[in-house]
Design a protein that fits this description.
By secondary structure, the protein is an alpha+beta fold. About 40% of the residues lie in helices and about 25% in strands. The strands form two sheets. It has a six-stranded antiparallel β-sheet with strand order 6-5-4-9-8-7. Strands 1-2-3 form a three-stranded mixed β-sheet, sandwiched between helices. It starts with a helix and ends in an 8-residue tail after the last helix. Keywords: ATP-binding, Nucleotide-binding. One of its GO terms (molecular function) is ATP binding.
Length: about 300
């Protein structure tokens, strides 16, 4: 925790992010529930993670950055290895002749700063960012698979077989699902034919062909999906149903999995059950500021009902 709950309470109050009465109720709840005030505020959708991080950064006299609004050069990904970047929640997003600029969820982490400084020989300038923005920025480590997908989508498939041979099937499968998630796809169909692995997305109820992968990838992708969803990997002649969960950005993506045998092999259908498609914050409902304050205040009462 970068600052205490008491300090965060005063900051949120000073910035007028939450009504005092509601904030006091949330503070009491967090103390009684043994969770941080920050988590309690975020769980109730009273503030956004960027709003909280911005006020915390201001208090700590550290610059705040929205990584989601920055195009991060792919050649910076070698500075922090992917495994360490994910563990430490840190991403290098810019560098110049004298400095390396790194965004972190926990700027007090001296270990990552020292590692970057030794590796680059430059001064490390630390920015505070959100965990969600870090998760999104970590896509910079998937440039190889993204390049291959973009080549396929653009119709330039001359070199894609070689690219896909060099990329682990885990990254290919994850990137396909992430691509579908970003495109607000409800279903992903993975179907084999004689020469290709056909990927089809259902968007707004319409099933459409998206891309064709090299056929040698099909069995590998099916095997990876079976492992992720705890299905039998030695079963190829009977239908199987399962489920899996992936952590994407700031939410869990639940996926229903159906695998059925077809003439050319096995067909996979993934139903994406994103929480963002099921849940909206109060602020998303279009209420006026005064009405929103009244409803939020009512929801935080321990009694009553909404009619």
């Amino acid at each position: 925790m970068l600052i205490t709950d008491e300090k965060l309470y005063n900051l949120v109050l000073a910035e007028n992010l939450v009504d005092r009465e509601i904030l006091e109720e949330v503070l009491i709840f967090s103390n009684n529930s043994d969770i941080s005030l920050e988590d309690a505020l975020l769980d109730r959708d009273l503030v956004t993670d960027s709003e909280l991080s911005a006020v915390i950064a201001k208090e700590l006299k550290i610059p705040f950055v929205r990584l989601s609004q920055i195009a991060i050069p792919s050649d910076l990904s070698h500075i922090i290895p992917e495994k360490i970047a994910r563990k430490m929640k840190a991403v290098v997003f810019k560098k110049d002749e004298a400095n390396v600029y790194v965004a972190m969820v926990d700027p007090s982490n001296l270990e990552i700063r020292e590692m970057i400084s030794k590796k680059t020989g430059k001064k490390v300038v630390v920015y505070l960012t959100t965990a969600r923005d870090i998760e999104g920025a970590l896509r910079v480590y998937r440039k190889d698979i993204q390049k291959a997908l973009n080549l396929l989508l653009s119709g330039d498939s001359e070199n894609t077989d070689k690219i896909f041979e060099e990329v682990p099937v885990e990254k290919i499968t994850n990137s396909l699902i992430e691509y579908a998630y970003q495109d607000k796809v409800s279903d992903v169909h993975i179907e084999p034919d004689e020469k290709h692995c056909l990927i089809r997305f259902r968007i707004d109820g319409v099933l459409q062909d998206v891309l064709k992968l090299p056929i040698f990838l099909h069995d590998r992708i099916v095997m990876r999906i079976k492992i992720m969803s705890n299905l039998r990997t030695d079963e190829h002649l009977a239908p199987q149903d399962g489920k899996m969960r992936m952590k994407l950005e700031r939410e869990n993506l639940d996926i229903r999995v159906s695998i059925i045998p077809v003439v050319e092999g096995e067909k996979v259908v993934l139903r994406l059950l994103s929480s963002r498609s099921r849940r909206m914050s109060l602020a998303d409902l279009g209420m006026g500021e005064e009405d929103l304050r009244k409803v939020t205040k009512a929801f935080n009462k321990s009694f009553g009902m909404v009619l």
